[in-house]
Description:
Blueprint: E1 11-13, E2 24-26, E3 29-33, E4 39-45, E5 56-67, E6 70-76, E7 79-87, E8 90-94, E9 99-102, E10 107-111, E11 116-122, E12 125-135, E13 146-150, E14 155-157, E15 163-171, E16 174-175, E17 184-191, E18 194-198, E19 204-216, E20 219-221, E21 226-231, E22 235-251, E23 258-261, E24 264-266, H1 269-281
Antiparallel strand pairs: 1-23, 2-21, 3-4, 4-5, 5-12, 6-11, 7-10, 7-12, 8-9, 8-11, 10-13, 14-15, 15-16, 15-17, 17-22, 18-22, 19-20, 19-21, 19-22, 23-24
Amino acid sequence: MSNLEPDPREAVCGTHGAPGPTFELLTGRDVVLGGPRGLRVTRTLPSRGRRMVGAWCFLDAYGPEEADMRVPPHPHTGLQTVSWLVEGEVLHRDSVGSEQLIKPGQLNLMTSGRGIAHSEESAYGRIHGAQLWVALPGTDRDIAPHFEHHAALPLLTWPDGAEITVIMGQLAGMTSPATTYTPLVGAEITVTSSLSIPLRADFEHAVITLSGAAEIEGGTLEPGPLLYLGAGREELSIRALRPSRLLLLGGEPFEEEIVMWWNFVGRSHEDIARFREDWEAGRGFGEVTGFDGPRLRAPALPGATLRPRGREH
């Protein structure tokens, strides 16, 4: 999925360590993808208060709703796109030749590296899920682009119906087959009563509710905001107020400063300007075949210089 805003904000990212255990609700902003009949999403990363959770740098949650998601070919650099569905189906095409339908419970993972283009389309109907980005560290940001589809992921179940699916990284003794470049975790949690999950104390973590409502560490979390929990926790306690589905994100604090603008992650204004120029000139990103329509044009760069900075609280 793309950032389709015609005047995208600069997202300046980086950390200087993570705070200890905290309880910080990050309210998202609503964005419509693909015109008036397009898909409405709630974007909680990056937010005004917090730009990253580990290497997770972008989070759009959407649905459930009747919508038509149609995102034309567009570029990415320096990141991984993580597609996760609860309802519906989405067809992914990219410039390395991948064409893959994703269904609920499956993972589409695209690593852009030095540059890739892709498109996404859903059939009109109910759709519900999340699109996330993971920033690549400097050592890997120029790797060759590639795509992974994982139809089966590690699943831990409880007799009362609670489940944990490990989407990326490691959790509760299970390891996802998805490729990662920094220590992190992404997991879907379904719970109908109460559940305690072991966490890595050196990770910072955040939770978002996709459906239902849950009590997290004594506070109520309903769909919409992202709950940032900080670092230093060895366990996460969840009590379902009604049957709930949540996403847990975490990772080792990302110590590099990055510039994220439109669909690019770089390290400087010059990086971003070069990525944009190459996309507009048709260089370096390849071609997406099979999509019926033109590719996205890049927005104009802002008048001010894009600068990497530390994390803003």
